[in-house]
C-alpha cells in the first residue's frame, strides 16, 4: 500500500468548485463544494480542498478539470497574440470561413465576434512549401527576424502563433522560424502548428494554433500558481489535468497544450459515464449534466462516448480530440427574462458573482435556481448541507416583479414556466445528438448529474419517452468523480489524403510507426512505465465527396476490405444508409493510453424496511401542474432495494432529485436512484 493513499479530483464550474476525495484504503468518497472565484481561480480550488479538510501530504494523485482556457477566450482575457505565416497569407485567420451559426441563419444583422488577433499583429515571411511538402522557396531568416521585431518590439506581442502553408507535411520551416525567434526573444511564448496538430486545412490549423498561443500565457500562470499552492499545503504526488477528449495529462504537458483542456470539465462526467455504462450493464447512456451556467449532453454508445476531432470556441474551430457534446447556455444560474412578452431562459448567466437572487450576493435577475426555490424543490435552510442559507423571499419577489406580473401569472406559474422553457430547450439539444443522428432516445438510459441535472431529468425522460433515469451518488460532483477514473491519454495524427482503393496500405506502416513513437514518448514523459502503454490506431474516413468523416479503429494488419466493411457498418448505424462511393482516407490517428485504476462502486446493504420520508413539503408537481405535498427523503438514509412513488424529493445537500407524480424510484445495489415511468399498481 502506498504511503499516500488519497486521490483528489477538483472540477471548476461556472458557479461552484467541486472537490472529491477518494481514500483507496477504504473506498470512502467525500465531497465538498466552494464558490468559484473568477478573478483568482486557483483560490477557489484551494478553498474547496480546505472545505474537505484533506491532508495534502497523503494525496498520491491530484486531477483537475478547468474551464480557464475556455473562459479566457469568451472573456477576451488571453495573451497579446501575434501570427507569423507565409508572405501573402497573413489574412487566413481573419477571413476564416463564410458560414453563419445555425441560430443566426436568418439574422441579417449578425456580426462575427471580434477577432482574437488584429491585422497589425500578423506578419508574413518569405518561404514556401507546395501541397506535397516540397520546398518552393527557402525560408528567409532575415524576414523572420524582421517579422518578429515588428510584432514584439513595435506591437508589444508576448505570444506568437507560427503556422505555415502545408507545414503538416514537413515541419522544418516552422521549427527553424521558432529557433530564430527564440534566439532573439527568449521570453516570448511560441506556439507551432506542427507541435499541436499535423493535419490539413490551413484555416482550422491556424485557428487552433492561435487559440493555443492566446490561452497559453494565462494557463501557464494558473497552473504554476495552483501547483505552488498545493505544494505549500504539503502535496508531493502526481498532478494531472483532464483533456477535452477524455483521459488526462500531466500539468507540464498541459502548459504546452492548453487547448486540450478547454472542455475538460464536462469531459470528466463523460469519462465517469462511460465507466458506469460498463459497470451497470447499460450499453446506451445519455449523459445529462446541468451545472451553474450550461447544460451538456452526450451519447454513450456500446459503452463508449461518441468522439469528435474538431471543437468550436465561439466561431473559432479547434482541431483537438473531444467528446461530441451538445452544449447550451442553460444552467442553474441561467437568467429568465422577457423578450417582447415571451419568456426566455439563458444564455446569459448570473454566474458565481453575483449569482442567483436567492444567494443574497447582489443578484437582481431571477434564475433557474430561484425558480427551483420558489417551486419548493430546494430547501432554503438546507442548501449545500445547511452551510449556505438562501433568500427565498427575495427570489419570490424578483420572479413576481420581473416575470409573473408582466405575464399576468401567479408566482408559481411563472416559476414553472421557467422550467417549461428550459425543458423545451433541453429537448431540442438532446434531439440533435439522438434523433437527428439516427438514435432512438427511448432505448437509452438518462444519466443525470450536475447540481441541477436531477431537477430536470425526470421531466425530460417523460417528455421524450426515455424509460429510465439514473442519478449517481453526489450528482453535483459526478464530473469530479469521473476524473478519478481517467487514464493518461494523448493523441497524434498525420494527414494522408488518398482514396482507400489507391492507397498503398503497406506504405502507411512507417507513418503509423512514426506516430506511435510520438505517442510512446509522450506516455513515457508522463510517467507511464515502458511497455505498459496501449496504442490504438484509427483511420479518419469519408465517402469521396462528403464533408464529414467517421473514425474507424484498425489493427496492426491493414486490410482494405475489412476497413471498408467497418466504415459502411458504422455509417449505416449512424446515418441509416451506405453509399457506393470510394472511401477517402483523410488522417491516420494514434491514441496512446496509460491505464489507471478505477474507483470501485460501493455496494449498499439492503434495507430492512420500506424507506420512510424525513418530512413532507409543498412543492410544484409537473405531473398534475399544481402545488401538492411531496415526500422528502434523505439520500444518506436510503438502502438498496428501497422504492417509493412520486411526488417525492430526494435531498442530499448538494443537489435535489425531483420526482413528479407518475414516476417511481428504486434504489439499486450501489445506491443509485433508478427513476422509471409508471407507479406501482
Automatic annotation (TrEMBL):
Residues 7-183 form the Hydantoinase/oxoprolinase N-terminal domain. Residues 506-671 form the Acetophenone carboxylase-like C-terminal domain. It comes from the Bacteria. InterPro entries: ACX-like_C, Hydant_A_N, Hydantoinase_A, Oxoprolinase-like. Residues 205-490 form the Hydantoinase A/oxoprolinase domain. PANTHER family: 5-OXOPROLINASE RELATED, HYPOTHETICAL 5-OXOPROLINASE (EUROFUNG)-RELATED. This is Hydantoinase/oxoprolinase family protein. It comes from Paractinoplanes rhizophilus.
Amino acid at each position: 500500500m502506498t504511503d499516500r493513499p488519497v486521490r483528489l479530483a477538483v472540477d471548476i464550474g461556472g458557479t461552484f468548485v467541486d472537490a472529491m476525495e477518494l481514500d483507496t484504503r477504504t473506498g470512502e468518497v467525500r465531497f465538498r463544494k466552494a464558490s468559484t472565484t473568477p478573478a483568482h481561480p486557483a483560490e477557489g480550488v484551494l478553498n474547496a480542498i480546505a472545505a474537505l479538510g484533506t491532508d495534502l501530504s497523503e494525496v498520491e494523485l491530484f486531477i483537475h478539470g478547468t474551464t480557464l482556457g475556455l473562459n479566457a477566450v469568451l472573456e477576451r482575457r488571453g495573451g497579446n497574440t501575434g501570427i507569423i505565416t507565409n508572405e501573402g497569407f497573413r489574412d487566413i485567420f481573419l477571413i476564416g470561413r463564410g458560414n453563419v451559426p445555425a441560430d443566426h441563419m436568418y439574422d441579417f444583422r449578425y456580426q462575427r465576434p471580434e477577432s482574437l488577433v488584429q491585422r497589425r499583429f500578423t506578419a508574413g515571411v518569405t518561404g514556401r512549401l507546395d501541397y506535397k511538402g516540397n520546398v518552393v522557396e527557402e525560408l528567409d531568416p532575415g524576414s523572420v527576424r524582421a517579422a518578429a521585431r515588428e510584432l514584439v518590439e513595435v506591437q508589444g506581442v508576448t505570444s506568437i502563433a507560427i503556422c505555415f502553408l502545408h507545414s503538416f507535411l514537413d515541419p522544418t520551416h516552422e521549427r527553424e522560424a521558432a529557433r530564430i525567434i527564440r534566439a532573439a526573444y527568449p521570453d516570448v511564448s511560441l506556439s507551432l502548428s506542427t507541435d499541436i496538430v499535423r493535419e490539413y486545412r490551413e484555416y482550422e490549423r491556424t485557428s487552433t494554433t492561435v487559440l493555443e498561443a492566446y490561452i497559453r500565457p494565462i494557463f501557464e500562470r494558473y497552473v504554476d500558481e495552483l501547483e505552488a499552492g498545493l505544494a505549500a499545503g504539503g502535496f508531493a504526488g502526481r498532478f494531472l489535468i483532464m483533456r477535452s477528449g477524455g483521459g488526462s495529462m500531466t500539468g507540464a504537458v498541459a502548459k504546452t497544450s492548453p487547448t486540450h483542456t478547454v472542455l475538460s470539465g464536462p469531459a470528466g462526467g463523460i469519462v465517469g459515464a462511460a465507466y458506469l455504462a460498463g459497470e451497470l450493464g447499460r450499453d446506451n447512456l445519455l449523459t445529462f449534466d446541468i451545472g451553474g451556467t450550461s447544460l451538456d449532453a452526450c451519447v454513450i454508445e456500446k459503452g463508449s462516448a461518441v468522439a469528435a476531432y474538431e471543437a468550436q470556441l465561439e466561431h473559432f474551430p479547434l482541431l483537438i480530440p473531444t467528446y461530441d457534446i451538445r452544449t447550451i447556455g442553460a444552467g442553474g444560474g441561467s437568467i429568465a427574462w422577457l423578450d417582447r412578452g415571451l419568456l426566455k431562459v439563458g444564455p446569459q448567466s448570473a454566474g458565481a458573482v453575483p449569482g442567483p437572487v436567492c444567494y443574497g450576493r447582489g443578484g437582481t435577475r431571477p434564475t433557474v435556481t430561484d425558480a427551483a426555490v420558489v417551486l419548493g424543490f430546494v430547501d432554503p435552510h438546507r442548501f449545500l448541507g445547511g452551510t449556505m442559507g438562501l433568500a427565498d423571499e427575495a427570489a419570490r419577489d424578483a420572479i413576481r416583479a420581473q416575470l409573473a406580473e408582466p405575464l399576468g401569472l401567479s408566482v408559481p406559474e411563472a416559476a414553472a414556466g421557467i422550467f417549461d422553457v428550459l425543458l423545451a430547450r433541453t429537448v431540442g439539444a438532446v434531439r440533435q445528438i439522438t434523433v437527428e443522428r439516427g438514435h432512438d432516445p427511448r432505448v437509452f438510459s438518462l444519466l443525470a448529474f450536475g447540481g441541477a441535472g436531477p431537477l430536470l431529468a425526470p421531466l425530460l425522460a417523460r417528455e421524450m419517452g426515455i424509460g429510465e433515469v439514473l442519478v449517481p451518488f453526489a450528482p453535483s460532483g459526478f464530473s469530479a468523480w469521473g476524473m478519478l477514473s481517467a487514464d493518461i491519454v494523448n493523441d497524434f495524427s498525420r494527414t494522408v489524403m488518398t482514396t482507400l482503393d489507391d492507397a498503398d496500405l503497406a506504405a502507411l506502416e512507417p507513418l503509423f510507426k512514426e506516430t506511435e513513437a510520438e505517442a510512446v514518448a509522450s506516455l513515457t514523459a508522463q510517467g507511464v512505465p515502458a511497455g505498459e502503454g496501449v496504442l490504438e490506431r484509427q483511420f479518419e474516413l469519408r465517402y469521396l465527396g462528403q464533408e464529414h468523416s467517421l473514425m474507424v479503429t484498425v489493427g496492426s494488419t491493414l486490410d482494405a476490405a475489412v476497413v471498408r466493411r467497418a466504415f459502411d457498418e458504422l455509417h449505416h448505424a449512424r446515418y441509416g444508409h451506405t453509399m457506393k462511393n470510394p472511401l477517402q482516407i483523410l488522417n491516420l490517428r494514434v491514441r496512446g493510453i496509460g491505464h489507471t485504476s478505477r474507483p470501485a462502486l460501493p455496494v449498499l446493504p439492503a434495507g430492512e424496511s420500506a424507506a420512510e420520508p424525513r418530512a413532507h413539503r409543498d412543492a410544484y408537481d409537473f405531473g398534475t401542474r399544481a402545488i401538492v405535498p411531496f415526500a422528502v427523503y434523505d439520500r444518506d438514509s436510503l438502502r438498496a432495494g428501497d422504492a417509493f412513488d412520486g411526488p417525492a424529493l430526494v435531498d442530499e445537500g448538494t443537489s435535489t432529485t425531483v420526482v413528479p407524480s407518475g414516476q417511481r424510484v428504486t434504489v439499486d445495489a450501489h445506491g443509485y436512484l433508478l427513476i422509471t415511468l409508471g407507479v406501482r399498481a
